[in-house]
Design goal:
This protein is of the alpha/beta class and 480 residues long. The protein has 14 helices and 20 strands. The protein folds into two domains: 272 residues, FAD/NAD(P)-binding domain; 153 residues, Succinate dehydrogenase/fumarate reductase flavoprotein, catalytic domain (Flavocytochrome C3, Chain A, domain 1). Strand 8 and strand 9 form a beta hairpin. The longest helix has 20 residues.
Amino acid sequence: MASTITTDLKNLSISEPVVIIGSGLAGLASANQLVNKYKIPIVILEKESSLGGNSIKASSGINGAHTTTQSNLNVNDTPELFFNDTTKSAKGKGVETLMDKLAKDSHLAVEWLQSEFDLKLDLLAQLGGHSVPRTHRSSGKLPPGFEIVSALSKNLKNLAESNPELVKINLDSKVTDIKVEDKKVTGVEFINTQNDKVETLNTSNVIFCSGGFGFSKEMLQEYAPDLVNLPTTNGKQTTGDGQKILSKLGADLIDMDQIQVHPTGFVDPQDPESHWKFLAAEALRGLGGILLSPSTGKRFVNELDTRDVVTEAIQIQCSKANNKALLVLGEGIYEDLKNNLDFYMFKKLIKKITLKQVVEDYKLPITSDELAEHLNQYSTAAKDTFNRPLVVKNLGDEITSETNVFIGEVTPVVHFTMGGAKINTKSQVINKDGQILAQGLYAAGEVSGGVHGANRLGGSSLLECVVFGRTAADSIANVN
């Protein structure tokens, strides 16, 4: 039987610490807001042996409307336009007040990262379902998720060393229960997975930032059984622990069957049957990438439609190829996505070959001249057959069978769970009667539900983490 150790943190010289469950961007954002702005001590409980969660792998960027970067690049955007794009993508599900907050606070989130952590976020991409370019990333060598998570983690790690009473980071710590008395949070129980000891932290405030459940076949079977056999981009830690605990406490779990299948996960030619896939970032399509069907050798969809629409098109048009499509990018895209493409080529997920080799290697049912002619018809048109503007301009002015392209196989993958514990605009967890579940109980990021409805826009996952992670911190500071 596991032994129990009780750690009473109420006697710290500073006020009682906030316990943050999970160290993806939502957890890191709430932690940094609490310690940097309010000097409120925090304890992070992370069940893995390192910080970052799935956020560290995000590769397209973070959304923001009416930002300084957009102004510098002459992009006209407003929170109202972003809100409209979000609600359209949500298809009548979710909670519009949360979507409105996401859009209105988006520029504050981006500018917080820029000012507090010296992140450039100076480049933009227009992803599927967006009316304008609003997905921010930095010019530099690091992918956006890794860059943002690294900057926020570094600040907390430095504080944990210099001021351990302000910041404590407990890795290998799996939360098993939340103690609630008289509808008030009183503590957190967790297991130290290195020694199997059960520990309890006494606290009045808990922020769940534990992520989604996209790796859990058990939960997929319960909420979306038709997706159980699809590959996933989620790390093995993404098992819905937070949703399970919050449900037992009485939280209202909403939209749990709304699970986003991302249209483009790379098929690794060295391990094509692997259940886990590297994500082929939506920015690859946003900056000019196109999709070809191996069955026809031709395009079949507006690659910048929403993720659910592109996914369905692949599953219909590429069914004879086991739902595998070909992602094709021209040489003109290389400078914009050099770091991504260098990484993908290093992992052998993408290769650079001529169109003639494309036809030969993938046994397309058309000639290389026919493929070049097919692509040429889209390279000069203001809008193509699928209503996408100038889709292949990065392939060059005159496309021939000798034109070089970057190409890789992609397939739909379980990527993001839109559903979770319902929250309000203060990031407080809500019960099934629409009331606050318990004083001091908050949630942010993928563990929560209502922000995205039926379909999440690319670039809004990192944004959700920053907006509602910071909101939880602000709510705790204002209550106390």
